[in-house]
Write a structure and sequence with these properties.
about 525 residues; Jelly Rolls; 2 domains; five-stranded antiparallel β-sheet; four-stranded antiparallel β-sheet; 35 strands; about 10% helix
């Protein structure tokens, strides 16, 4: 759509407190495909269906958008979707972040095709490189330990921020000179400041970082001017408390002055945050999918839960540019979730990661199995949780000696990590007769919003002299009621009705795909 209004899905905004939230327009990606602007109720008020961008899009003061293109380029589109500027690369890939500098040039993160470390390039309006910072030499002291773990992608720069005017520089600290660059090097667990004049690394922070994202210095008017905020993913906490953490620190001494974490908030990778002028923080949980706004007490005052991944949204004031002003007020009536409901990020209840599973044939069929040593997982269970179990046996071929009296018992246990108390919530036995492989969905609603250790166990009788067992668990899958609704909605009828086709066409017109 170009300037017209279209109705978003009202169910996607599940929390909205108009008095406590910072009301503005939110720039986001729709289905990870193209940029949209929405008001506080989730209503789409403008979109750029022509813009094929990835990872980052930013609204500029003239109401155009700047983003990392889907190919080897960075691109700018005006409000009406016309491409007004582009810079292409032959031997490198722009990725993760791009910003428009105060001097009008563009700064972008890139990775050369023959390199494993990132470069930062400044481009003028002709697309020419006028300044370049290569990370390999300045970051060599930090790189060696990361090379073995991240082959071919050692530094993984994922955000760049131009330092604004700040009280530390005004007090004489040259490290924080406006125009210097604040960078996040994810695979080094490092946040750093680069002096634009010398290319030297003049400030670093690594305290307890684990694959962090989105390092930003807070601007004037926020009440926290000069502090640095970042999204500490805490990837390694998957086997522990599973909580990502927002950190705001005083860069002079690294002291943490504010933080936010919650058992329902965990994004092992991805994610971003934006400090808002009223002190609130807009957070995008890369593995949610959701974006939510919290106040300084940690209370959620706005929440958007679309049925697709959320990638680095940005909130803009109505007066940010003329086209936003023309859209009118971005607020609306309060939205309150059902009593007792709250969103839980999928990573908080994912039973296992990829390296905890293996592929093998069981009963002649290739299946995804859980490794025996990964048969337990401590999770934070979501609303109306359930678990899909798959299990079975790999019977000997007909030509082999029969296993008289063989049986395999499978059971599911939910335990309290604090008290050690366990509850058996499911059990089944496969004997010498019957199906080789079974599936069963088991409700875990009695344990919703609780941290629990979920274990799949098995025991076999009648193996004889066999040294290897015949019974296996498939990789369990925990889901919420919302996950199941989205999955059901995705299974659209093969033959839509005339009415459904008309609605579909209306949506395409609203999004600007057809006239």
């Amino acid at each position: 759509m170009r300037g017209a209004r279209a109705a978003g899905d009202p169910d996607w905004v599940t929390i909205y407190d108009p008095e406590a939230a910072w009301n503005g327009f939110t720039l986001a990606f729709h289905h990870s495909e193209y940029p949209i602007l929405m008001d506080m109720t989730g209503r789409i008020v403008h979109s750029w269906p022509e813009a094929r961008l990835k990872t980052r899009v930013r609204l500029l003061p003239d109401c155009s958008i700047l983003g990392v293109g889907a190919g080897r380029h960075v691109t700018e589109y005006d409000w009406h979707g016309n491409q007004v500027w582009q810079a292409r690369f032959e031997d490198r890939i722009p990725h993760h972040d791009v910003i428009r500098l105060t001097n009008g040039n563009t700064m972008v993160l890139t990775l050369a095709t023959d390199s494993e470390t990132d470069d930062v390039l400044e481009l003028d309006r002709a697309g020419e490189v006028v300044w370049e910072w290569r990370s390999e030499k300045p970051l060599e002291p930090f790189i060696e330990s990361a090379r073995k773990r991240f082959t071919g992608d050692t530094t993984h720069l994922n955000s760049v921020d131009e330092l604004p005017d700040n009280p530390w520089y005004r007090a004489g600290d040259e490290r924080f000179r406006p125009g210097n660059l604040l960078l996040s090097a994810r695979n080094l667990n490092l946040v750093l400041i680069v002096d634009r004049a010398t290319g030297e690394v003049v400030w670093t922070y690594q305290e307890d970082l684990d694959l962090q994202h989105e390092a930003r210095m807070l601007r004037s008017g926020s009440g926290h001017e000069g502090h640095i905020m970042l999204f500490n993913n805490r990837y390694g906490s998957f086997r522990g408390d599973r909580q990502s953490r927002m950190i705001e620190l005083d860069p002079r001494d690294g002291r943490i002055v504010w933080s936010y974490s919650s058992p329902d908030f965990f994004s092992g990778t991805g994610g971003a945050q934006q400090a808002l002028p009223n002190g609130n923080v807009l957070i995008a949980s890369g593995r949610g999918p959701r974006a939510f706004e919290v106040d300084r007490s940690g209370r959620t005052v706005w929440q958007w839960e679309p049925p697709f991944g959320v990638n680095r949204p940005e909130r803009y004031a109505t007066e940010y540019c003329s086209e936003l002003e023309a859209l009118g007020r971005p607020d609306g009536p309060p939205v309150r979730p059902p009593k007792g409901y709250r969103h839980v990020d999928r990573e908080a209840y994912r039973f296992s990661r990829r390296n905890h599973r293996l592929e093998a044939k069981v009963a002649g069929v290739k299946r995804t199995l859980i490794k025996p040593e990964r048969s337990c997982s401590t999770v934070y269970l979501p609303h109306e949780a359930s678990i899909l179990l798959s299990y079975g046996v790999d019977r000997p071929p007909p030509t082999a000696a029969p296993l008289d009296g063989y049986s395999a018992r499978f059971w599911l246990v939910v335990g309290n990590p604090e008290s050690g108390e366990e509850t058996v919530v499911f059990e089944d036995t496969i004997a010498s007769e019957g199906p080789d492989w079974r599936e069963q969905e088991v409700g875990l609603g009695d344990f919703q919003y609780q941290r629990r250790e979920v274990c799949v166990r098995l025991a076999e009788d009648g193996l004889g002299d066999r040294k290897r067992g015949l019974a296996f668990w498939g990789a369990p899958n925990i889901s919420s009621a919302r996950d199941r609704r989205i999955a059901e909605a995705a299974r659209a009828p093969a033959d839509p009705t005339a009415e459904e086709l008309e609605v579909r066409q209306e949506h395409l017109r609203a999004m600007g795909y057809v006239n």
